[in-house]
Amino acid sequence: MALSSPKCPSSQFALRPSPAPRSQRVAAASSSLSCPPIPRRLFSKRVSSQSRANRRWNVASVHDAARTLPISPAKEIDLKKVENGVSSAISAEEYRDLAGLSTRENSTVSITVVGASGDLAKKKIFPALFALYYEDCLPEHFTIFGYARSKMTDTELRNMVSKTLTCRIDKRENCSEKMEQFLGRCFYHSGQYDSEENFAELDKEIKKHEAGRLSNRLFYLSIPPNIFMDVVKCASKSASSANGWTRVIVEKPFGQDSESSAALTRGLKQFLVEDQIFRIDHYLGKELVENLSVLRFSNLVFEPLWSRQYIRNVQLIFSEDFGTEGRGGYFDNYGIIRDIMQNHLLQMLALFAMETPISLDAEDIRNEKVKVLRSMKPLQLEDVVIGQYKSHTKGGFTYPAYTDDKTVPRDSLTPTFAAAVLFIDNARWDGVPFLMKAGKALHTRRTEIRVQFRHVPGNLYRSFGTDLDRATNELVIRVQPDEAIYLKINNKIPGLGMRLDRSNLNLLYAARYSKEIPDAYERLLLDAIEGERRLFIRSDELEAAWALFTPLLKELEEKRIAPELYPYGSRGPVGAHYLAAKHKIRWGDLSSEHYKI
Ligand SMILES: NC(=O)C1=CN([C@@H]2O[C@H](COP(=O)(O)OP(=O)(O)OC[C@H]3O[C@@H](n4cnc5c(N)ncnc54)[C@H](OP(=O)(O)O)[C@@H]3O)[C@@H](O)[C@H]2O)C=CC1
Ligand SMILES: O=C1O[C@H](COP(=O)(O)O)[C@@H](O)[C@H](O)[C@H]1O
User: Fold this and answer.
1) Collapsing DSSP states into helix, strand and coil, what is residue 417?
2) How far apart are CA 93 and CA 333, in angstroms?
3) How many domains does the chain fold into?
4) Does 76 share its domain with 135?
5) Of the residues 236, 251, 266, which one is the last residue of a structural domain?
6) Is ipTM beyond 0.95?
7) Rounded distance from Cα 13 to ligand 2 centre (Å)
8) 197 pLDDT band (50/70/90 cuts)?
9) Mean pLDDT in the chain?
10) HEC readout, 207-235
């Protein structure tokens, strides 16, 4: 039985009954609140959801409020209400409701997808926004603007977007009607990324749709990083909200190394405060990554085992069975370490290894993640193996080499594969190798965390198999595809003899839940609209993450270290096996029994 199953789990728009009429609530507020009159101000309505305990009220919105309200956040929380002669503290949510600051009737959210003509916008952002609309998770008054240099009419944008919208398999009802309604709320504005004038025109368009309601604005920077700064400057000067919040989602890559990342952060902070910046790492929005903390902190059977005492090593593995096709130009400036390891895999590692946060609040979780990152030693050359895929012919088809891509220099040394060993220098993880492996054009598409446990001391059944890797438990968190959590255990094969077998206790999501899993971008967009920062990267996390990889990246590039070539569609360079073997480890995804699952 599910503990709770709200329709739109994180949205009050769908969950909460309509509030009392605003006039009544303001009257109630003015008669009972011991605070100065509050200016009309908009907030997104906030969540009160059983399933997301930390969302009881939105501290973020309270902070946003504080910027324009004549009182500090601390004072706000101190506000008292008087009910039947009894005085008690009010929650931030009550505060906003009582003050009439956030009602679905008087607030708007305008979402501008900057770079709307691009790949990510089409593939992920518009479909995610539609899915949220379909699930009634978007506010009542919302408008979506596409912004890019390409010339397009609203109709052309809608045609482009409509090609990538889909309804979930379990949600086919009224699908085309919903799509039409959604597309009717999408508009396009063509402009340059560095033109304040063009953003001022966008501002006018947004205002028309806001129709005098209180204004909240979200800008999604789905553009190459070299133009982030231009857009942030122009949007903040000419198109930010005058009376509500303005937030900016920034896509990765956030810089190329410590210096460029710090420069980007400094640049962004000329126009935005940290709370307005939502640095997205879409892996944090994946269901199984979100579930990591639940698995660990809500199950007594796991938490006590989560340390060097019982865990022999942890493996974070990302593999794709396709190359950089179509994105070679971007990829060649970054390589797999910056593209996947420094962000997606490291974020998963931090969530996996962090200490128990004080609460589920964004800052408490991010504080713990930073501590883990800061406890790690920067990578050295000897901790890493790099590879690059080469052409391979199979079944009469020739798969291209990385350097066959026209946008990639023929002599490129950019790694498309890397394996690394990292250590966390703290009491919990001292001496436990954390292995990472990420590669493109490999034999399979899969992302998983594999936790290999130590062997049982004095194992009575040792004589039935001495291979440590076969006899020890392994917990696998398969992030994608076929989301699953399974635990490899030893058991007796039924029968009169005594033969041991390895079996899986398997939680396969598709078998357990009929509901389709939302795309990571849905969760993250909803969070950004709601001001929930838990799944976004804070600037100090970013700094700590770059500090781990920057010296290595510099050395690889300065010494022009050649990557080991591996055939397209293979299991990657042999060097990765030697690297693991140095630490007496085998890659769990390549062990033969893996393929039985
Ligand atoms: N695509 C993906 O799967 C992923 C992308 N990302 C990140 O998301 C962002 C967007 O990605 P994606 O959509 O693939 O990017 P695109 O290369 O498709 O660029 C998006 C839009 O930006 C404009 N643009 C492209 N190049 C330039 C340039 N040199 N100068 C000015 N404008 C330019 C174009 O619009 P126009 O010409 O109309 O102005 C283009 O349609 C990037 O930061 C990327 O790293 C992150 C994860 C995955
Ligand atoms: O950020 C990126 O992620 C994708 C993989 O994302 P997934 O959700 O499809 O697993 C990767 O292909 C791309 O190179 C990288 O920039």
Assistant:
1) strand
2) 45
3) 3
4) no
5) 251
6) yes
7) 31
8) very high
9) 84
10) HHHHCCCEEEEEEEECCCHHHHHHHHHHH
The residue among 90, 68, 66, 95 whose CA lies nearest residue 78 is 90
Residue identifier of the C-alpha nearest atom 1 of ligand 1? 120
Residue 520 lies in a domain: no
Closest ligand to Cα 146: 1
pLDDT mean over 461-466: 64
Q: Are residues 320 and 436 in the same domain?
A: yes
Domain span holding position 432: 284-452+538-596
For the residues 554-577, what does the mean pLDDT come to? 97
Q: Does 308 share its domain with 372? A: yes
In angstroms, the CA 500 to CA 477 distance is: 24
Higher pLDDT, 105 or 303: 303
pLDDT bracket for residue 425 (50, 70, 90)? very high
CA 461 to ligand 1 centroid distance, Å? 57
**Ligand 2 environment, Cβ below 6 A:** 282, 320, 339
The answer to whether residue 504 is domain-embedded is no
Which DSSP letter does residue 318 get? E
* Joined tokens for residue 126: 């518009």
281 CA closest ligand 2 atom index: 1
Quick check: pTM over 0.80? Answer: yes
Nearest ligand to the CA atom of 339? 2
Tokens representing 583 are 């630490």
Shortest CA distance to 341 belongs to which of 437, 240, 256, 213? 437
Residue 487 lies in a domain: no
- Same structural domain for residues 227 and 369? no
Candidate from 339, 341, 444, 523 with most ligand 2 atoms within 8 A of CB, to mutate: 339
Average pLDDT over residues 209-235: 95
| CATH for 194 | 3.40.50.720
Confidence of residue 471 (pLDDT cuts 50, 70, 90): confident
- From the list 3, 96, 80, the residue with the least C-alpha distance to 47 is 96
For residues 235 and 318, membership in a common domain is answered with: no
CB atoms inside a 10 Å sphere around CB 398: 11
Q: Can you give the CATH number for the domain in which 299 is found? A: 3.30.360.10
- Asked whether residue 233 falls in the same domain as residue 355, the answer is no
Q: Which of 45, 75, 98 is the last residue of a domain?
A: 98
Whether 506 is covered by a domain: the verdict is no
Listed residue (255, 551, 533, 548) closest to 367, CA to CA: 533
**Residues 298 and 221 occupy one common structural domain:** no
More confident residue, 127 or 465: 127
Smallest Cα–Cα separation from 457: which of 442, 447, 472, 435? Answer: 472
Let me know whether 50 and 127 are in one domain.
no
Q: Is the pLDDT of residue 48 over 60?
A: no
* Catalytic hit among 141, 189, 344, 455: 344
387, 417 contact by CB (below 8 A): yes
When pLDDT is cut at 50, 70 and 90, the band that residue 501 belongs to is confident
Each residue of 241-276: pLDDT tens digit? 998 999 999 999 899 999 999 999 999 999 999 999
> pLDDT grade, residue 106 (50/70/90)?
confident
pLDDT the model gives residue 64:
47
Q: pLDDT grade, residue 84 (50/70/90)?
A: low
